[in-house]
Amino acid sequence: MDRIVISDLTCRCVIGVEEWERREPQDVLVSLELEVDLSPAGKSDQIEDALDYRALKKTVLIEAEASHFHLIEALAGRVAEICLEDVRVEEVKVRVEKPGALRFARTVAVEISRRR
Predict the structure, then answer these.
(1) Which of 43, 57, 93, 98 is catalytic?
(2) CB-CB neighbours of 48 under 10 Å
């Protein structure tokens, strides 16, 4: 299966368990791997036959930045649901990173995979 990859989409959202984490939006990074049949777009060279990843990015950003999840696991799950709303997406892998969440670590991340 073919893939579309979006790496390190920066979202600012309220996320965290502790009260101090929920006072102001924090940066999280969202990366996606979308399994999609790209052959129709490859053959036709027409945008109508392609997955509109710009629109998908916009939807993910809007949803993430409006969210107030406690866990990055929940944010990852919601992002996966958004991606699977497009019937052409057979599978999605979502990675959500929360930089600075742990002292002495650059980031903490969860990765999930969901199929249609």
Answers:
(1) 98
(2) 8
